[in-house]
Amino acid sequence: MSAHDQSGSLPRRPFGATGLRITPLTIGGGPLGSMPGNFGYDVSAERGIATAVAALSGPVNALDTSASYSAGDSERRIGQALAQVGGIPEGFVLSTKVDRDLTTGDFSGDQVRRSIEGSLERLGVEHVPLLHLHDPEHTTFEEAMAPGGPVEVLAQLRAEGVAGAIGVAGGPAALMRQYVATGVFDVLLTHNRWTLVNRAAGTLLDEAAARGMGIANAAVFGGGILAVGTERTTKYAYCEASPDLLARIRAIEQACAGYGIPLAAAAVQFSTRDPRICTTVLGVSRPERIAESVELATVPIPDELWAEVDVLTDGIAADRAAS
Prior knowledge:
two-stranded antiparallel ribbon
């Protein structure tokens, strides 16, 4: 299949064993509800809804959000966009996430049901193609897996048809490996652990792929520095980067510049070219960012640049168990 089919869509690939087919990119809905604390800027309701409409009708067939993003405003704006376009488009992978109660910290099975009920109301739908357990690092693995706990309830929601498939979306690689090993989940969503300069999720990705799980990789820009470069920010994953990390990023910047390739394109394609990864999640907050994201994912990058990147990143630990 060519890079774009006749409808202008990106090619779709199997999303593990879910039965879903997904484009190499997924639009991340975090910025749609305005999260200035995370992203450094506000997004108006009008702009968020317009961006969601563009996401639902553009070349990317997946949009990811969460009950916790901007206190539900991301889902509310996506819900208004869904109303405008007539519901979830056929074959579109809309995903959201069940969350702990952000006020009390409750992450019980009952809270999971309350979370999805709120999400369905805000989105204006009766079911979602994909539903994730979000940030399980905020409970213990034992509590999550206990009878009647959040994982059991999530599996019940799949059996009830509220969710077509279920996933686990979180950060710490060692913890995520425990959830993958349960065999309960259809999809893994990892973030900030598989980028140009972080390889903490290496074994996690291997194990999820070996199980036939659909794999989504998010936060490939490391909070922004791998998109805009070291002249504009010195933070990686929202913390000040170490001198060694900054030096490594600057070296990759220089290598990309030598080939006329945007650093952001290399950051995106580091993920999209990985055969284990089905889709790469990129947050957007303006309609035009969708076409720009597709361009980053499709600009030709010579093999010679990847060889240089491999040399510059040699020595990065393949796994940091506590990461």
